[in-house]
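Intended use. Records like the one below are meant for learning the mapping from a protein sequence to its folded structure. Do not use them to infer anything beyond what is encoded.
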Amino acid sequence: MSKYAIIETGGQQLRVEPGRFYNIRHFVSLTPNELEQNTKILIYRVLMIRQESTIKMGHPWLKGAIVKGRILHSCLEKKITIYKMISKKKTRRKLGHRQKSSRFIVDSIFLNGKEI
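Structure written out for the chain above:
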């Protein structure tokens, strides 16, 4: 908990720490063919970095900040069910889909070429 970064990817913001894994809906820069196991990824959209008691914030992103990691595996999330019913018309419609997500592990956090 002494060092962490807040990144933006997949339409959401995540607080990431080295050595932990996270699920992300999709990586914009990677095609489905490249989402294989142990694919190395670099995330440049770093909003904030905290190291011990110092905090560095970007506007909107930090320059020279990189989060390095690798993809563990791709998977499908739980099925989302959409049920529409119009009363008194006997109309019912049931739809659903499963979103693709990727689990990745953060290896290290870099700021200006130096690992923090």
